[in-house]
Amino acid sequence: MLYLKTTELLEKLESELRLQSLWSSVKPSPEAMSDSSPFSCEAMPFENWVQFIFIPKMKDLIDRGQALPTNIAIAPMAHHVWSSKKNLHTLILIFDNLDTLLSEQR
């Protein structure tokens, strides 16, 4: 059930990123992809980190039947980056829901 709900939220996240024209057709450079700063914020926009790092890692964990993170706090970054843009509040809400869902599995 947790995998199903998480997958649904990841799909909503991707859909909303596409709807808001934040989905990129260009993958960040290998250097950006290996950036170790939180959310790779020194190397790429937050939405690129979501698309190219977060979503693929979560899908991989689900596909392999691995444990999902329980100590997750991505919503605060979404609030920080997008709170001033009313059209992106749906994205923030998705992260709020994802953080809550995964934190409740402890």
UniProtKB/TrEMBL annotation:
Q: Enumerate the InterPro entries for this protein.
A: UCP006257, YqcC-like_dom, YqcC-like_sf
Q: Which GO terms describe its biological process?
A: single-species biofilm formation
Where does the secretion signal sit in this chain?
A: none
Per UniProt, residues of the YqcC-like domain are 6-101
Query: From what superkingdom does this record's organism come?
Result: Bacteria
PANTHER family (UniProt xref): CYTOPLASMIC PROTEIN, CYTOPLASMIC PROTEIN-RELATED
Name of the protein this chain belongs to = YqcC family protein
Species assigned in the record = Shewanella atlantica
